[in-house]
Structures are given as C-alpha cells and as structure tokens.
Design brief:
Layout: E1 3-7, H1 13-28, E2 34-38, H2 50-58, H3 75-78, E3 81-84, H4 87-96, E4 105-107, H5 122-142
Parallel strand pairs: 1-2, 1-3, 3-4
C-alpha cells in the first residue's frame, strides 16, 4: 500500500512520519511507496528541520536525504491513503482533490491533531516523534490492514 504523509511545510512532522512508516514497512516486510509532502510550497527543495533529523536519527530513522516538496495533483492517484497531521491540511487537500480520491484522506491522529513542533524545542520534536510512531503503528493495524 502506498502512503503519503502531509503537513504544512514538509520539514518536520510528515518527513518524520514517513521515516517511521518506512522503518515499520521494513521491519514487517511490507511493500509500498512511502512519501511525504506539504500543503504549502515554502520549503520545496529544503532538507528536513535539523531537529527532526536529529530526533529521527536518535531513533534509527535517517532523514538526511529528505527534500521537501508540495503535494502534486498526481499524488491523489498514486497513493492509496493520505494521512494529514491537522484538520486544516485535510480541508486544503479536499479543495484540490478529485472527488474520486477524497476518501483517501485521513487525519493520522484519528481524533487528535498532531501539533507542529517547529516553533518549539528539540524536546517537543522528541514528543512529536513518539506521538507519530504511536499513530503510525495504529495506522498499520487499522487502515493498512497488515
């Protein structure tokens, strides 16, 4: 199953979530494309936030090759499921998503938004990483049915 993670700028939450999901896929022998993107184009081409790289690396997830990108029209076709970090991201995507693919958009946290650690400390990145890992594991069980 191909999975896309989406946040605002694609330098913190969504790259960490994609890295976590890639490691889960590897551990469980699951195949599929895992990518991340942002709703905005502010950081296109930039690497992940250094704090995200550090925290992910401390947890065995390498984000050094990440380059931010914005969601593209063909993402709605290419990916089987699109996980967003906040409801506003879902609203933004639904405005540009073809109706036939709108059913693919889900809030990763199900009942809670995953707040952006960008304006916080590295400790907030650690907390966000833990929340992302928990939700990625739940997503594998509930949405991806592995």
């Amino acid at each position: 199953m191909n999975v896309l993670f989406v946040c605002l700028g694609n330098i913190c939450r969504s790259p960490m979530a994609a890295g976590i999901m890639k490691s889960i896929y590897e551990e469980r022998g699951i195949t599929g494309a895992i990518e991340s993107a942002g709703t905005m184009d502010w950081n296109v081409g930039s690497g992940a936030d250094p704090r995200a790289v550090s925290v992910a690396g401390a947890n065995g997830v390498n984000l050094k090759a990440h380059r931010a990108r914005q969601v593209k029209a063909d993402d709605f076709e290419r990916f089987d499921i699109i996980f967003v970090m906040e409801n506003v991201h879902a609203q933004t995507l639904r405005k540009v998503c073809p109706p036939a693919h709108a059913h693919k958009i889900f809030l990763l946290g199900v009942d809670e938004e995953i707040t952006d650690p960008y304006h916080g400390s590295e400790a907030e990145f650690h907390a966000t990483y833990k929340v992302l890992k928990s939700h990625c594991l739940k997503a594998v069980q509930e949405h991806l049915q592995f």
